[in-house]
Amino acid sequence: MGLISHVVLWRLKRCDNLDESSEARDMMAQQWMDESDLRLLEEVEKARRMAEKYAAHSGYALNPDKEALAGIYRGLARNKLQYGHRYCP
Q1: Is the entire prediction scored with pTM above 0.90?
Q2: In this predicted structure, what is the pLDDT of residue 36?
Q3: Pair (26, 44) in one structural domain
Q4: What is the domain count for the chain?
Q5: Range of the domain at 45
Q6: What contacts 30, CB < 8 A, 6 or more positions away?
Q7: Which residues of 37-62 are buried (b: 16+ CB within 10 A; e: fewer)?
């Protein structure tokens, strides 16, 4: 399941006719989120993939604290959208 689906899954669980595997979940998620939210989430996902790939290639380990790591991904994504590069947050 993609990042966008995880972010809005809690909203969709209120709908009795949708389960976690429903294709309608992704369509409704996009309706509930505006374009800037979707761009940010896509950039967060790209930052996550980039960091995991870099860590695996270079022998580094990512921070085991998932909340701290998520904050770093959000900062990298925000800087990419605002400045055009993934500057350190």
Answers
A1: no
A2: 75
A3: no
A4: 2
A5: 34-89
A6: 4, 38
A7: eeebbebbebbbeebeeeeeeeeeee
